[in-house]
């Protein structure tokens, strides 16, 4: 695991990424819903090849942060930079094309479609043929469709799912559906992929496989991964930098070893010790 070093935002990134613009930065990010502040003053950076964690107790604001990063929600204040460019005023689809993809806490697949067609949906970023050729099935469209099929099969094979390509997505076992959602996110060619509780509902062997797959994603595609996860064994064994939220505020940032020993983190998860 690479040594972590501080960048100007006072966040930390892996040493191997320190001479490059972080793939993702937030500065004083916040959002209010009515009179409630859900996220407040979030400043963080994710290195270009970092596996990072965003953790905290239930209700800490973690999924709200993912919704902000993907412009599902517009921030009340602060800035989000993706590969050094502001995402302000962009639609969710435009932000995806800028290089950010995500999975969801509750799996969101096209259940009635085949596995390979779910992946092809993610390949929309590569579509260059005109709408007319889509209707006329021109030579260019047919060539592109063949390329999409080939690329989709490559991505599925990466996760040992090519043999399931023409199965109905909704018929897959739970763990396979989780993997398919990650494959579809990777199909959009992101610079960073956000994984929202990817180990939820998985048994220990599936979780171990997930850990290997996350490392393979980073190493093979040379991209960053930011994950929300309640499985602390997974987080502490795979993440290089960790940001801890509690009630929408950052209470700690650091390496796994630093986070494990942080009194504020221990208190947030276990509650304050009583005096006497």
Protein described:
The structure is a single chain. With 276 residues, the protein is of the alpha/beta class. The chain has 2 domains: 1-99 and 190-276, P-loop containing nucleotide triphosphate hydrolases (Rossmann fold, 3-Layer(aba) Sandwich), CATH 3.40.50; 109-187, no CATH class. 36% of the residues lie in helices and 24% in strands. It is built from 10 helices and 12 strands. It has helices at 62-69, 92-98, 115-122, 131-136, 139-158, 174-186, 204-221, 232-238, 256-260, 263-270; strands spanning 4-6, 12-14, 24-33, 36-46, 51-55, 77-82, 85-86, 100-102, 192-196, 224-228, 241-246, 249-254. It has a 6-stranded mixed sheet, sandwiched between helices. Strands 4-3-6-7 form a 4-stranded antiparallel sheet, covered by helices on one side. Helix 3 packs across helix 5 (139-158) and helix 3 runs parallel beside helix 6 (174-186). The protein is globular.
Can you lay out the helices and strands and say which pair or pack?
Elements: E1 4-6, E2 12-14, E3 24-33, E4 36-46, E5 51-55, H1 62-69, E6 77-82, E7 85-86, H2 92-98, E8 100-102, H3 115-122, H4 131-136, H5 139-158, H6 174-186, E9 192-196, H7 204-221, E10 224-228, H8 232-238, E11 241-246, E12 249-254, H9 256-260, H10 263-270
Parallel strand pairs: 5-10, 5-11, 8-9, 9-10
Antiparallel strand pairs: 1-2, 3-4, 3-6, 6-7, 11-12
Helix pairs in contact: 3-5, 3-6
